[in-house]
From TrEMBL:
The name this protein goes by in its record: SRPBCC family protein
Recorded family membership: Belongs to the AHA1 family.
Species annotation: Plantactinospora solaniradicis
Domain Activator of Hsp90 ATPase homologue 1/2-like C-terminal as annotated: residue spans: 19-147
SUPFAM superfamilies: Bet v1-like (SSF55961)
Length: 155
């Protein structure tokens, strides 16, 4: 018999970017830009259909060599303001995490953007830990910063 467990966690992150909300939003919506900062160099495949009902799939490998598949469905998109999506993370064929994420793009007084991200997640059977997910999310928000500052970044 396998031990079954469920851990619920919610975290919120805020980040400032020195570009307007339209540029930050574009980095989420453009498949090439999103692949660079979200999927990263170790990705084995990234697909993005950025529309309500559209899917995003990112495939890669865990440090132990096992496959990881992160799949999202977009439920709400308000251009330059808000994105809401539900995601599932599979380790091989095993469902590890299911989550709901809301990303808000708020204009800052200096012409930049305050990004607010809130994730509510269910972690199943110890396959992933809340602190791992939060750390990974911090890392890809930092990669988004680098994407926004690169020459010819998303418009």
């Amino acid at each position: 018999m396998t031990d079954q467990s469920v851990t619920h966690a919610t975290f919120s992150l805020e980040r400032s970017y020195p570009v307007p909300p339209a540029r930050v939003f574009a980095a989420w919506a453009d498949p090439d830009a999103k692949a660079r900062w979200f999927a990263g160099p170790g990705s084995e495949g990234h697909e993005l259909d950025f529309r309500i009902g559209g899917r995003e799939v990112n495939r890669g490998r865990h440090e132990d060599g096992g496959t990881l598949t992160f799949e999202s469905v977009y439920h709400d998109i308000v251009p330059n303001e808000r994105i809401v999506y539900a995601s599932a993370l599979h380790a091989g064929q095993t469902l590890a995490t299911v989550s709901l994420t809301t990303v808000e793009f708020v204009p800052a007084g200096d012409g930049g953007t305050r990004l607010h991200l809130t994730e509510q997640a269910t972690f199943l059977d110890g396959h992933e830990q809340p602190q791992w997910r939060e750390q990974g999310t911090r890392e890809w928000l930092a990669a988004l910063d680098a994407e926004l500052l690169r020459p010819n970044g998303p418009e």
